[in-house]
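Pipeline run #58 for the internal structure catalog. This entry was flagged by the ingest filter as a single-chain record with no existing model, so it goes straight to prediction. Upstream metadata was stripped on purpose; only the residue string is passed forward. Reviewer on rotation: M.T. Logging verbosity set to normal.
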Amino acid sequence: MTKEELKQRTKLFALRIINIVNALPKNAVSRTIANQLIRCGTSVGANYRASCRARSKKEFISKLGIVLEESDECSFWLELIIEAKLLKKIRVEPLLNESDELTAIFSSSIKTAKSSNKK
């Protein structure tokens, strides 16, 4: 996957997060989860774009670490939405799968960058 394709994928992920957040019930619990999820869900793409502009390999790895943390946090909130039955599992699960895939991609990218940085 190219850098541009990953930028597009993370932007689409943010848009899908926005749609899920808008579908949550209007209550105190959902509001709290929605605030957290919208923050980390949109942060994935924004911070990935920032990592693409890193001035050094070390800065790139550091910024990707933030992306990894945010994508993993998204998985947590999406799991919580499913387990608390705030939305139907069938609606949230595809986005949870995407969040898990992005987490795996960024984890692998960090390992590769660290490995190539040692050479």
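catalog note: The CA atoms of residues 24 and 31 lie 8 Å apart.
catalog note: The chain has one domain: 3-118.
status: ready for reviewer M.T.
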